[in-house]
Fold this protein.
Amino acid sequence: MTGRTDLNVAVLGAGMIGIDLASRIGRSASLKCGLVVGRDDQSLGLRRAAELGWATTAGGIDALVDAPRPFDIVFDATNALSHAEHWARLEPLGTTLIDLTPSRVGHMVAPTVNVADALQCGNVNLISCGGQASIPILHALTRQYEPDYIEVVTTAASPSVGRATRLNLDEYIATTQEAVRTFTGVCDVKAIVNLSPARPPAVFRVAMSLLVPGATLEPVRALVDAAAEEVRAYTPGYRVTACAVTDERVFVAVEVTASGDRIPRYAGNLDIINSAAVLIAEQYAAGREPVSAAKELT
């Protein structure tokens, strides 16, 4: 049986990412937010989720494992250190995990590059917000050129970066670097993260520098613009703000302005990774039988 929609999904994590995810799921024609899960029943996120009408629990991963029916998809919006345990406990239930933490446990996916891989995996890792913003462009460039070096500098407004992300900055850097190497084939890669305290808060920005023998501006710009247009199909606030080639050095900068209704416009870091997560879940819904329905028939 295929073509079923209305997948029953849960959001694990009630921070800014989790609440925005639940809101996006609520607007989806093919996903149903069955539960928002936290660990503190007094947390602002869980209170806000309840006020907005979603079922909530402070039972953590136990609440998902002990649910009457398994969830088809769980979005893990917690932290990288906890994700391995979450996967170990949910995998036997047939639940697909979409991991928004930089855990490197699952299969790394950037939608415009390898979304088809996501449909074959039980654990999809969305790398990092910087990875989601940079990899589509870097992948496009390295299909045409062979860079000697790639550097990715991510700048996010401090208010848009929650406690879990701050605890995972080392994992964020390591995962982003590994993903860039994987998707480009370039070994010499460096990722840097800046948390900006500026007021008003700075819009999310990712700057990419590449050493590319033989690069010229016109074909580089064409590749960059085409890649950016594909990302805008699911993240409308994504735009290229700079593209230059000087002495075999390619520089590309992008900004992401958030369009979600539960996050500020400067929080493009949350917008791009949540947009990718929901897109992938909707791809699952388009062609897979819900696990919860299958369990009922056995």
Remarks:
- DSSP finds eleven helices and twelve strands in the chain.
